[in-house]
Amino acid sequence: MIGQSFFSQNVNPSTSEGISRRRFLKLSGGLLVALQLPLSKLAFASSDGVANEHANSPNAFIEISSDNTVTVMIKHLEMGQGAFTGLAVLAAEELDADWQQMRAKHAPANTALYKNLNFGIQGVGGSTGLSNSYDQMRQAGAACKAMIIGAAAQKWGISKDLISVTRGIVSRLDTEDTLTFGELAEDAASQTPPSEIKLKAPSEFVLIGTKVPKLDTAEKSSGAAVFTQDIQLENMRYAVVAHPPQFGAKVASFDDTEAKAVNGVIDIQAIPSGIAVIAKNTHAAIKGKNALKINWDSSGAEKRSSTQLMNEYLATTKNIGKIATSSGDVDNALKAADETHEFFFEFPFLAHTPMETLDAVIQINNDDSVEVWMGSQLQTVDQGVVASVTGVDPSKVTLNTMISGGSFGRRAQPDSGFAAEAAHIAKTQPKGIPVKLMWTREDDVQGGRYRPLTVHRFEGALNDNGDISAWDHTIATQSIVAGSPFAGMIQNGIDPTSIEGAQEPCYDLSDFRLSLHTMQNKVPVLWWRSVGHTHTAYAVEVMMDYLLEKGGKDPYKGRMALMPEHPRDQGVLKAAYELSQKDKPAKDSARGIAVHRSFGSYVAQVAEVTKDSNGLPKVSKVWCAVDCGLAVNPDIVKAQMEGGIGFGLSSIFHEELSLNEGGEIAQTNFDSYQLLRIQEMPKVETIIVQTEFPPTGVGEPGLPPIGPAVANAWRRLTGQMVTRLPMIPEVKRMNMDA
Amino acid sequence: MKVNFTLNNEQKSLEVGADTPLLWVLRDELNLTGTKYGCGKAQCGACTIHLNGNATRSCILPVSAVNGANITTIEGVKSPAADALLEAWKKHDVPQCGFCQSGQIMSAVNLLTRNPAPSDEEIDASMSGNLCRCATYTRIKSAIKDASNTLGEKA
Ligand code: FES
Ligand code: FES
Regarding the domain delimited by A306-350+450-737, which CATH topology (the fold level of the hierarchy) does it fall under? Predict the structure, then answer.
């Protein structure tokens, strides 16, 4: 997902003070409460001109219906992180709505109305969904409430001061009369939006900071929720694509005789990314794909195995790379040291494997307009790329954002490769016919866009007090943004996503150097839940723990002593540690601790690990403390910590995407690309450390500390220092060697 | 071929390719999309249905094998265990992305129908075929225990 500060040219910091009316109108698109306002149709015409025309009319964010439901238009993809509930709470708070009447649905793709205020385009990543909406959605709610009060004042012929709103009921203070939002919806629509908006002080919050039931739980439990995979339209065709078995390979020739003979196959088309099979149903499409005979031209393909790549990276990190940060004199400090410790950390490629594979439904209409249904983390980019592939103006592309079965960055493709593939297929099909493109799990696992393979080299020195006297850190990894529309994020040759989390550790280390080697290969890489922090937190926190131990320091107190200037890091570390102290240690267990700041939030975790009967690590419990500023939805914060811990543990224990000799991808499906299962999930106890700061993200920050916390516990339990991931096969190897 | 089976208590009779996995018959032919595709290889459990009352992966079950069988999908599952589980799922706000959850519920119904008071280990054993990439596992476990308690109280 996209780190948060990378669109700095567009950063539009939104603070609760100082939003001018002009800016507010610009951001929110103005407000109008309407009786089931057909907003989506209006807003779809999304060229700036049209959007501005509506800037003073439709309420971009809130629809109040005569049946008294309030629907919040959610500008960001709901992918499991809780965007629907999170953003709806913000609006409901200022609207003083009753939570029971709240609903949520995706807003259409419309950059002018629905951009991420940190990015300048419509999209979500870097755990910015809630934080960039915090003021915007509250302002929408407050303006809406003012218009409802205005309508009630007119209806009753009284002053607005005599009206109050509580839990969705509009009451007169001078009589017993009440009205509902639904009864006032139509009149409120003709009210002028207020010129000034006063937001509640946090002490006045009724919903924010409390546990509200999530809006989408019921339909996501009963099978009723509609994902892209579930769209079934009349006359719809089903497409799958045969992709090259190596990165960079191309179709040389193909024979589709047998594929065409498969019952239900309608058409076979060569497209830039492979060979598309279009059929009457999914089964026929997959069968047709399996029957294709394709000769691949692998002359331009990546042929190195991951072992070869790893060895090259390892060799490279023996030299200092491009300096990202440097203070003091590391070389001298290393020379002068009593003892030095060197470690190489090896991280494999990782696949996102969201439960719903990539999919989209697309239809080119007779008038050349295009309609797309897909889960998109970057609506503006996907809409633009579909437009350019189909040769129309972006305003002609209606993008309906669908809830997605996970994403974790997978659906935030800077080049919109997947949306482009869907558009290329649609172009080959008759107009007016919808096509559903679905990747199989094999396509997904082998489809690239991985967390980059990465090596960290550390050299740390200790003085005779056991204090850390030098910290030399070198990273070799591929750039995620190089060559993409996001390449502007690269500063002085350093892609911030390669080093984030290592550059400014929370520790005061005087002789400190961080350098980067940006490596090249043909494997496409992408942001993967918590991006660079996936490897930097592991390397930094395992190295730190090792040096503390060698220096005779306590892992908790030793860390605290190194971060006197970092109260929020200290705050979570202390909270996690103290929480863990309430539970007696399990028999034959050890505990490990780690702390890491990412995407503006602070998380510390203590993991308790035992050795199972096979000599492998088992995590029994994790105590987690998070400081994400104001916790808008404490239960979602906790759920995201649990999810981040499970997702992180999955990768640390099992996940590895590798290339065989010759560059063929070794894994195909969940039998070879293994994920964490329920029996491996530890108990999780989370404490939210309350601070006065505005809300920051929680979708990613729960992940980085779990790996090092577990590895540190394991080292303290067994003496095994795990520097090569994933951990389970590595510990097996170590046990065999022993 | 012509297949006949009972689906969510209704008689179905349709003409489909014998090798078509039941998953795609449900989704593409019968528009029952609560049952999901996640892997197609019996690895993830997203496609779990009940075949004659047993939790089964529909992605590797050829429709020819269900001739005369009784099939229940998430859309039709109705029992004290199912009701208790849906209530508990709500109470614990289990789903994140939600994509795996129909399969989780179908496996959990299967478990509680046979064993209304499972231990932690028994929950692990019968739920381990259902992946949740969002890692809602702790809540799945709490919700199953809650539902089990509800069933115990009613019994
Ligand atoms: S889709 Fe059947 S088990 Fe994964
Ligand atoms: S809730 Fe997302 S995969 Fe389970």
Answer: Aldehyde Oxidoreductase; domain 4 (3.30.365)
